[in-house]
Amino acid sequence: MTTPDDTIDADAFVPLLDDEAAPAGDGAALHWKVLIVDDDEDVHQATELALRGVAIEGRALQFLHAHSAAEALALMRAQADIAVALLDVVMEAEDAGLRLVRQLREDLGRRALRVVLRTGQPGYAPEIETIRSYDINDYKTKSELTRVRLYTSLTAAIRSYRQIVTLEQTRDGLEIIVSASHQLGRQRGLQRFAEGLVTQLSALLGVQPEGLVCAHAPVDPYDTPRIIAAAGRFRELIHRPLEDLASAPVRETLARCLDARHHQLEPALCLYFSAPSGRGIAAYVDAAARVEPLDQRLLEVFSASMSVAFENVLLYGQLVDYAYQDQLLRMPNRNRFVELITERQRAPEGVALALLDIDDFAAINDTLGHVVGDQVLRAAAQRLQQVLGPEVVLARIGGDTFGLLGPEAAVNPQLVETAFAEVVEAQGERMRISATMGLVRLQADSPPGAELIKDAHLALKQAKQIRRGSSCYFSERMGVDARERMRLLRSLRGAFDERRLYVAYQPQVDLGTGRVVGAEALIRWRRDDGSFVPPDRFIPLAERSGLIVAIGEFVLRTACHALHRLHRSGYPGLRMSVNVSKVQFTDPDFLPSVVRALQDARVEPQALELEITESVASEDLNFILRVLAELRRMGVALAIDDFGTGYSSLSVLRQLGAQRLKIDRAFVNELGAVDAERGDAGQGSIARMVVDLGRSLGLETVGEGVETLAQRELLTAMGCHIGQGFLFAHPMPADELADWLARNR
Ligand code: C2E
Ligand code: MG
Ligand code: MG
Fold first, then answer.
1. Which helix (H) or strand (E) holds 690?
2. Which of 27, 121, 242, 308 could form a disulfide with 225 if both were Cys (CB 3.0 to 4.6 A apart)?
3. Among the listed residues 651, 648, 668, the one whose alpha carbon sits nearest the alpha carbon of residue 710
């Protein structure tokens, strides 16, 4: 056996002592662990002596010693980072060394550890097959253990050890990255994403999630960055502005990273994740160790794939934002409000829901423009939130409708009124706004959110009917009424589709001569059980649902055909009056439908009169006047129905260009009735005023609802031209009208 001692001096000049190359300050942490396994103590000493002071790839060697295979195995188990084992083949058994290698590879799964086999007998060599299958790096006889030979052999082994470790780390890192981007790309919400980022990043770097901070660049350029996730000692800073971070180096590194939109690797690690939209996140890692070049490359890959996940999270956030946020006022929209109501229903005591509608908002929009309209909405929202306090949720659930949800003490009409006590300013315009409110109190058995909004809506409608600016609480009765109206509308539709609606005609008589001058067409709905539903009940429903357009056209066409037959059967001078509601009149197909009805029935336009109420003038007046002008040009006459019950001004009345005013039957009813207090017959001052007004405007007047002879005589004396009422005839079907006309020639 050769002792290495005699070779040491010969090799002494070899410049192996590259201590200077070792990076300063790394201390004992950076060295290669070399395990010497041999049952001969001399070999241990000789090897260590031969390699004393040697450094490989900038690191010193640290020797571990085992004198049997069992001892070696225990050491390997305990220390995962042994780089090379110098292993004696023959120890307690002929092949003890080879068996150890097998256990090392197969049982312990150590693939990186390099093995240099050593044997005392020059003639003994393991088979090539063994070397290959146990991944043995080198095979040496103990006589070859000179300083130079050992150095060469160890250098090769350590280099390949390092490469294998690097590859393993890369693989592990990539696995983390793949699974991280898989997990984080599906995160819903920036905060969750950031939390995941912190965890995954620490896993990748092999550090504890300690001292990690994630800051988000502000969306609004005037805002400051915020901390959206943090771990360890920075934990309580979540949601706070970055400025609040006390540690200046951490704060500045994050700020610099967000500013430069790039990773900062010095002095501490700070990664930047960006989305194409320009929004970015910076993640600071409080890792003491410097970042290895390998880690740097992995971090690049990590941040590239996280940026993709980040973009997904932002896109998802945007979708959520559009689905649940009002984009103008930046508050919950109807969808979100419904959810919030449902959440509040878990503890419904003392909670109220209100719908608040800004009065005459459409007029503000129309006259002052949408920019002013938007500002008014913003001002209203701001006032409301100020007055109602943070406990009340404010949502925008329609154009000019806000939803309020919160304690009854706050969500109540008195408090809300104070929000609008002062004028608001928009684009230099100072205006007073008011709002109408419908309220519902939440109860344990309240219906779900969407239904509750409907209830509040009913209350709001009720309030609008009372007076703009008032408010109304929902009651069970309202719900019942609404459901009944729905049922009625449904059966009206059925009746119309099945042609169970028909038209009745009520004659109109010239009060001077007693001759019949025309008839008014009135819709009738007779139910299967023979009962009638009065038009006053179902016409408003038909108007609100739009069904009136079809029903109105049906009446118009039927009346025109009936008139044609009357003309042909000896009453050529008769006129037909047809009621037209506001909704119908403003329908774009209205004029063409009149032309069609007249042509199809072969009736002269002069024989048709349309009755409209003053309320038509409350719509877009210019449009109404254009339609009326066209009707006039055709020769169709116009009567103002129920005159005296509306509020239209004299100038509007003149502009409408009617031929007749119909005195509402309520005013005719007053005529001739005995006044209980004065004991004489009433003078019917309103009926007289209408007749006088008609005369001064050059219009004929028609008295509706004439039931008594006295009424007829008073009207005649006033100078009213035409009478219509039960005194002459009830409304009747077309064929009965023909008989009636024959009898009353
Ligand atoms: P209106 O246009 O003012 O019709 C006159 C109403 O007075 C009719 O009621 C008629 O039956 C009733 N009436 C006539 N003479 C007397 C009388 O001497 N005493 C009393 N108490 N009532 C009398 P009706 O048929 O119930 O119609 C009510 C309202 O429904 C109509 O008032 C009209 O506004 C609307 N309406 C009826 N048919 C139609 C239609 O085809 N289209 C539209 N848009 N509205 C209609
Ligand atoms: Mg009428
Ligand atoms: Mg009337």
1. helix 685-697
2. 242
3. 668
CA distance to 17, 150, 583, per residue, from 56 (Å): 9, 12, 95
Q: How far apart are CA 532 and CA 525, in angstroms?
A: 6
Residue pair 238/227 in contact by the 8 Å Cβ criterion: yes
Residue type, 255: A
Query: Which two tokens mark 480?
Result: 């019942």
Instruction: Please state the atom number of ligand 1 nearest to the C-alpha of residue 580.
Output: 44
Atom of ligand 1 nearest to the CA of 522: 38
Contact 388, 394 (CB under 8 A): yes
- CA–CA distance, 495 with 420 (Å, rounded to integer): 47
Cβ pair 317, 190 in contact under 8 A: yes
Residue 595: count of CB within 10 angstroms of its CB: 15
Please list, residue by residue across 601-612, b when 16 or more beta carbons sit within 10 angstroms of its beta carbon and e when fewer do: bebebebbbbbb
Determine the Cα–Cα distance for residues 487 and 533; give it in Å rounded to an integer: 13
> What is the C-alpha to C-alpha distance for residues 597 and 334, in angstroms, rounded to an integer?
44
Q: Which of 98, 325, 306 is nearest to 190 (CA)?
A: 306
Which residues is 398 bridged to in the sheet? 401
In angstroms, the CA 499 to CA 493 distance is 10
The CA-atom distances, in angstroms, between 32 and each of 14, 28, 57 are: 21, 10, 9
Of all protein residues, whose CA lies closest to atom 45 belonging to ligand 1?
A: 579
Beta strands in 217-305 (DSSP E): 226-230, 269-274, 280-285
Task: Please state, rounded to an integer, the average pLDDT across all residues of the chain.
Answer: 85
Candidates 502, 586, 665: which one to mutate for ligand 1, based on the most atoms within 8 Å of Cβ? 665
**Nearest ligand atom owner, CA of 504:** 1
What ligand is nearest to the CA atom of residue 577?
2
Tokens of 585: 């009149």
Calculate Rg over the CA atoms of the chain. 48
Query: At CA 260, angle to CA 259 and CA 262, rounded to 5?
Result: 125
Element (H, E) at 543: helix 535-545
- CA of 537 from ligand 2 middle (Å) equals 15
Q: Which two tokens stand for residue 44?
A: 């241990």
Measured in angstroms, how far is the CA atom of residue 484 from the centroid of ligand 1?
23
Residue with tokens 């909670």: 351
User: What amino acid occupies position 665?
Assistant: R
Judge contact between 63 and 46, C-beta under 8 A. no
C-beta of residue 671 within 8 angstroms of C-beta of residue 713: no
Mean pLDDT, residues 604-610: 98
| Pairing state between β 471-473 and 501-510 | unpaired
- CA 192 to ligand 1 center in whole angstroms: 66
Residue 725 Cα, ligand 1 centroid: separation in angstroms?
A: 10
Mean pLDDT of 207-214: 68
Distance CA 136, CA 139 (A): 8
- 641 Cα: distance to centroid of ligand 2 (angstroms): 6
Q: Whose CA is closest to 440, among 449, 428, 430?
A: 449
Which of 55-59, 114-118, 137-141, 387-391 has the least mean pLDDT?
137-141
Mean per-residue pLDDT, 529-556: 94
Contact residues for 100 (Cβ-Cβ < 8 A; gap 6+):
37, 69, 72, 73, 87
Please list the alpha-helical segments (H only) found in 389-529. Answer: 413-419, 449-466, 476-497
**Tokens standing for residue 120:** 């005392």
The answer, as to whether pTM is greater than 0.70, is: no
Q: Between 468 and 8, whose confidence is greater?
A: 468
Ligand 1, residues at Cβ distance < 6 Å: 506, 522-523, 534-536, 539, 552, 555, 579-581, 611, 641-642, 665, 704-707, 725-726, 731
Determine whether 106 is exposed, middle or buried from the number of CB atoms within 10 Å of its CB (0-12, 13-18, 19+).
Answer: exposed
- Ligand 1: residue whose CA is nearest its atom 17: 705
**Least-confidence region, from 293-297, 358-362, 492-496, 694-698:** 293-297
- Residue 710 CA: distances (Å) to CA of 76, 399, 522, 684: 124, 53, 26, 12
The amino acid sitting at 154 is L
